[in-house]
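Hi R.,

Here's the input for the glyoxylic acid complex you asked about:
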Amino acid sequence: MRFGADILRQADLLAGVTEEAGRITRTYLTPQHREAGELIAAWMRDAGMGAHFDALGNVVGRYEALDPRAEVVLTGSHMDSVVDAGRYDGVFGILAPIACVRDLHGRGARLPYTLEVVAFGDEEGVRFGVSMIGSRALAGRFDGAALDRRDAQGVSMREALHAFGGDESAIPSLARTRIAAFVEAHIEQGPVLLDEGLPVGVVTSIAGGTRVRARVEGVAGHAGTVPMPGRRDALAAAAEMVLAVEAHCRERADTLVGTVGRIAVCGGGAINVIPGEVEFTVDLRSGDDATRRAALAAVERRCREIARRRRVALHWDAFFELAAAPCDAALQAQLAASIAAHGIAPRFLPSGAGHDAMEFAAVVPAAMLFVRCGAGGVSHNPRETLAAEDAEVATSVLLHFLEHFEPRQLAR
Ligand code: GLV
Ligand code: MN
Ligand code: MN
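And here is the predicted structure with glyoxylic acid in place:
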């Protein structure tokens, strides 16, 4: 096996770089981000690339073309994780192209373009709520307001970036809007390829998403003395709102998904206190932006009705949005040709998960290669699995694509 076993071994090493013993949690601008980035940079250098941390903590490896005026092609994915994550989400899209460069370099082969492999510092948005921080900056779309966002400990992104050794003033210079293409390899995070017995597939488009932070304010009171009819229980109201989100999305399940991933009684709550204040999040996704925006409005309306009836206040902050992103047709065709060259029928499928490629799709031709996800397709879960054989095939397909890719074939 040329690639698969090494990639899984490296993913295991990265899985050991975590903020929480016994589970994988690696968030932006933490010591674990630094440690993972240093491991990745060392692998990049060992493979034949120059590598450095950029101003936002992304690790950038460059495999130079012989011609210094050659175009630049970007590939890569994210090194951060959700809380209690699997070990391949993001990581595969960093390790596979490093393996490709190692192979090219070992053969003394150069590409007709400079290849940059990027390990993005943040895609999941776990620490500061907003996601795609690294890719957004490289796509020239960084929103400076993100620097004022604070983590659960009250540390702002600006402060954390400074402590990490980043450089706020250099963020605008990270923009790579003149690159020829962005191509990302990623584990599917769903069961489509698994169910169809296929190791790889080509992504057609990436669903858009909206993130909401909601706060319900009722009245705290004694669990034993306040009669049931008079209560303004923030948690009971929030629970009804959670079910309203689910009901709305279930009724439109062919085009929409919605998740309340976090809910908490402010201050922690107590068994004998009626909850006075509750916060929860809403994550809405759809391949169609109009459907998602209509759902956002409808769900907010429904939650406000619940708040009125239960005599609680509702603060609703739709603080982050990502538009749906179609993948470039010519790049999809070229990825499909590389899959077919391996004797595999190209399967085209949409992505329900968000990816760094979304940020680039707005400004340059962008595409994605999916690799089969084992264990029923489960992801954002420590049970996420990737077979070495699938990592092998996907990396070989990526290498074939990189070696046959001709930036001039793309319509501009
Ligand atoms: C990232 O994995 C996302 O889809 O939220
Ligand atoms: Mn993820
Ligand atoms: Mn991911």
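One thing worth noting: The chain has two domains: 4-207+324-409, 210-322.

Cheers,
M.
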